[in-house]
Amino acid sequence: MEEGFPLGVTQRGYLQTTWVQGRPEPSFWMTLNLKGRTRRAVVAQRCSQCGYLESYAQTALPARAVVLWPFLAAALLFLLAGLLFAVWGASRVPRASRGRAASELQICRDRYAAARTADDSAAVDRSLVAAGARGNVYERCGALQRSER
């Protein structure tokens, strides 16, 4: 008799159990190292009267070649595209926010220039200026003036 172990677990659905030659050896990337080992399909026969099962390893299965390089190349390409997009987006955001901040500050400066008394300038400090790209975020003029310094 030859030493081996049954193998039949999958996450994709149902597969026929296979018998693998040799002792199970752990692998670094996968659960078990199966490279260069003979695999055989396991066939079970059941007695119809008592239910006794016998399993037999049939003829050797053809070796399955797993081609990893297309998956690795696609993952690397996807990663590079994501990094380029992130760098491009990061370079665009500061320019856009600088332009909006300058216009917001100009609105506050105009309001301060129009204020004639201390009460009016306090009211300008509390007044809101649209700071978001869609106008749904507001900042107080006093906070904008302090952030400029």
Largest sheet: 4 strands, antiparallel
Categorize the overall geometry. Answer: rod-shaped
The percentage helix is 40-55%
| Strand adjacency order, main sheet | 1-2-3-4
Tell me the Rg in angstroms.
35 Å
Low-confidence spans: pLDDT under 50, at least 5 residues?
none
- What's the number of structural domains? 2
Number of strands: 6
Order of helices and strands: EEEEHHEEH
**What is the average of the pLDDT values?**
76
Percent of residues in β-strands: 15-25%
Structural class: alpha+beta
Q: Quickly count the helices.
A: 3
First CA to last CA: what distance? 85 Å
What would a concise description of this structure say?
The protein has 149 residues and is of the alpha+beta class. The chain is built from 3 helices and 6 strands, in the order E-E-E-E-H-H-E-E-H.
3D architecture notes:
The protein is an alpha+beta fold and 149 residues long. The chain has two domains: 4-60, no CATH class; 69-148. Helices cover 42% and strands 20% of the residues. The chain has helices at 69-114, 118-126, 141-148, and strands at residues 4-7, 18-21, 39-46, 53-60, 128-130, 138-140. It has a four-stranded antiparallel β-sheet, with no helix packed on it. Helix 1 packs across helix 3 (141-148). The longest helix is centred in the middle third of the chain and has 46 residues, at 69-114. The chain starts with a strand and ends with a helix. The mean pLDDT is 76.
Task: Walk me through the topology.
Layout lengths: L3 E4 L10 E4 L17 E8 L6 E8 L8 H46 L3 H9 L1 E3 L7 E3 H8 L1
Antiparallel strand pairs: 1-2, 2-3, 3-4, 5-6
